[in-house]
Write a structure and sequence with these properties.
It is globular and about 55 Å long. The strands form 2 sheets. The chain has a 6-stranded antiparallel beta barrel with strand order 7-8-9-12-11-10. Helices cover about 30% and strands about 35% of the residues. It contains 7 helices and 12 strands. It is an alpha/beta fold. Strand 1, helix 1 and strand 2 form a beta-alpha-beta unit.
């Protein structure tokens, strides 16, 4: 996977690049949004780590660009001190997640691994508990459309579903599902980060503490861990 790191602090950029390389991804660091925009003229990255405060064009201005919006490349925003309103604006502009500095590397690594494109041979890298189980899921789109799907892979970070519905990466939805016995129900916002030939991968957004605990309990129960 190709990761583009947009960070004007060389030290932070180097640390993020080393993390990506350690996972096994190709990574490149640029110091401005203008340089990142130039990368869209050639081979587009599969994912972008974007600082908010940049010289010249800001990270928010970069998110607003039509070429960035149309590309639907997953973007993780990194900010020194993100306010609630700033984080909300980033999500509205299509950011997958907003992380505060210093970056929580364990969380960032788990997040990065969910964006990996399928490899010829499956490699098990995810450290968080996962459950491969069929669960009915109700998907509510922002335009009011609802459709039914089946969860085939669930973790505390993301969910993979199978469905005949047509939806493009970058779409924000609400997911509703419950345990096989019906005694544990979870409702959470999510972003479609990848469309594979065998299903869609949604990353959970803004989980409340209660929802996270419910999800953790459900995943561990279903996975037997």
């Amino acid at each position: 996977m190709r990761v583009l790191i947009v960070e004007d602090d060389p030290n932070v950029g180097a640390v993020l690049r080393d993390l990506c390389l350690r996972i096994g991804y190709w990574a490149e660091t640029v110091g401005s949004a203008e340089d990142a925009l130039a990368r869209f003229q050639g081979d587009r990255p599969d994912l972008i780590l974007l600082d908010v405060r940049l010289p010249g064009m800001s990270g928010l201005d970069f998110l607003r660009l039509p070429v960035v919006q149309e590309a639907a490349v997953p973007i993780i925003v990194i900010s020194g001190s993100p306010t609630e309103s700033q984080a909300q604006e980033c999500f509205e502009l299509g950011a997958v997640q907003v992380l505060a500095k210093p970056v929580p590397f364990d969380r960032l690594q788990r997040l990065l691994e969910w964006f990996e494109r399928p490899a010829p041979r499956p490699v098990e890298r995810r450290r968080s508990p996962r459950a491969r189980v069929a669960l009915p899921v109700r998907v509510h789109q922002e335009d009011g459309t609802e459709w039914q799907a089946t969860c085939v892979d669930l973790s505390t970070e993301a969910m993979k579903v199978r469905s005949t519905a047509a939806v493009r990466p970058g779409s924000t939805v609400a997911l509703s599902f419950e345990s096989p016995g019906g005694d544990e129900r979870v409702e959470a916002g999510a972003l479609l980060i990848r469309a594979d030939v065998d299903g869609y991968v949604f990353y959970f957004l803004n989980l409340t503490e209660d929802h996270f605990e419910r999800l953790t309990y459900l995943v561990r129960r279903l996975s037997g861990s």
